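Table S2 (continued). Query chain:
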Amino acid sequence: MSSLLGGVIFVAIMIPVFLTSMFIPYWTRKTESFGVSIPEEVYHYNELKGFRKSYATRVGIFSVVIAAVFLLFSAGGLESEQAFSWLFSTIILTYLVGSFIIYLRYHNRMKVMKKEQGWQKEKPQRTVIDTSFRDQKLTYSNAWFLLPLAVTVATIFMTFSFFDRIPDRIPMQYDFAGNVTNWADKSYRSVLFMPVMQVYLIGLFLFINSMTARAKQQVSAEKPEESKARNVIFRRRWSLFLILTSVGIVLLFSLIQWSFIFSVPQSLLVYTPILFGAAVTIASIWIAYTTGQGGSRVQMTTTDSGDVIDRDDDRYWKLGQFYFNKNDPSLFLEKRFGVGWTINLARPLAWIIFLVIIGLAVGLPLILGV
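Corresponding output:
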């Protein structure tokens, strides 16, 4: 692989990662700062503004260093895609560890500042639960997943209708130059690999959409009505994103399946996934930027008062990111630092879900002989 191609791939994948990492503190709820709960009015203090700016700068500098290291090692050209994969994986791991260390510094500074300032003692704490919250339409209907399912059924029907036209060896993977790097012998199991993966992904997206609707209700005690309205918008936007992404991925897999039967340009098979991946990445960043965590960036004005603040539950958030609370029946809830949802790791069901998702992802290709 040439250094130019490797550099282009690296930039296309990592620039969104760099930008997301830098600006996460600006996208979280205003009642949270670097994994620490705070009163909303504190979010606008100059010192905390300085923290966010300093964090973004440090992560930005670290991102530039990481990019420079990658380009330096790949300058002479990479002998194979395997060499590129090893280098890229090492760079990714280094970046994740390094950026987390930077985060921990600000997380610890926030904990110290919160203790010194005694913000939680200035106003009474309260947990707000709106019993009518789930009466609203929090996500789009799971019935929308019938669309990608219909595409999958059509793909299976077409596969068996034209089974005799499928070559004896099926291309399963291409490099960035359009060359086949992995083949599978034709069989009923191998030709079903793409449709089975389509069903798996549809099920996964449907599960995530359902959990988006059922995730723990988090209503701000300071501005309950505004918080509730923002949260509904937040959930519905990400629900729509999930549905559209699932349709796109299923169509992409169908295109690959069709290439076994009909003549499809290799360039289309190589660049369509890249363009689709770029579109999904840009869309997710745009939603995160315009919506924020829990709808925190949605423009809205209410007359809610700030006489009370949210109950302090920092003790359940390990390092400000990992939620352990065996007394909380909720399985899914919003991330404390970031945009999206996380899981209550104190619940045994959480680990069962992890094992099932990973087990199916690893086991299905083995079962289907791919």
